[in-house]
Amino acid sequence: MDNENSKYFKYYVGFSALMIAGSAAFFSVFGLSKLFAGAALSVIIMAGSLEFGKIIGASFLYRYWNSITTWLKVYMTVGVITLVGITSAGIFGFLSNAYQGATIEFEKQTATLFYQEDRLEQLEEDKSYLKQELEQSINTLPDNYPTAKRKLREEYNPKVFALNEQILNIKQNIGDLKVALVETGVDVGPAIYLARAFNTDIDTVVKFFILILIFVFDPMAVSLILAYNKVLEDDRKKIISKPKKMSNLKNTETIYNRVKLPEVKKVTEPEVKTVTENVKQKFVGKGGKTPGK
Fold this sequence. Notes:
This protein has about 290 residues and is mainly α. It has one domain (about 5-235). It has seven helices and no strands. The chain is rod-shaped, with a radius of gyration of 48 Å.
């Protein structure tokens, strides 16, 4: 099982590097296009080319670090680090724009709610002031002036009723706005909760999380690209060393097959007797004497 996992590990590293680098490039390219909305297509082409060049540049530096000149090392290293910074800025622009799009309605409703609450407080104060003014005016009149007191009440009552109607309408608007805020706040509910938990505003919480994301996003993509190159290099070394051993075995087998030993032929007894007699006739003369003696 471990061998199978190690066999496919390089594909896992390559896939993760592709996914993170591709996502970072996507967010960065479209974030920069929002920043320079006047030439969005041109910015997309330029930023996409730079993102691809950053990945190739990082891979090139890893593979040919020991064989390139110092000035090229310095320039390409600075270029890759700068492009990482540009990518991070593009990601920040994309995420902040997405956050503003999700919270713009929430902020509008919140501002309207604050205005309505301030208006309600002002109307309540006006109503209280009218009642105090009415009571003071009535108290200045003697008790034997009931008609004058009634006229004063009739004069102030329409104003109080108008204020009551405005207060009632504003309270109804505040209730509707609070319901709408609950429905709209679902999209940014976690940010609202965290802002309350840490006793801060939503913008600070979201900015903090965006900074964390851009700190690990593109640097992790470049690191995985370098890790993938390392895995490929190790895998290539294994492949190169393995055929040498196999070729030695094949050469041994080939030599063994080519060198054929002579077959041993079985000799029968009559053949042995015939060969022995021929040798005697050739090297031993008649009468058992050797020829030439």
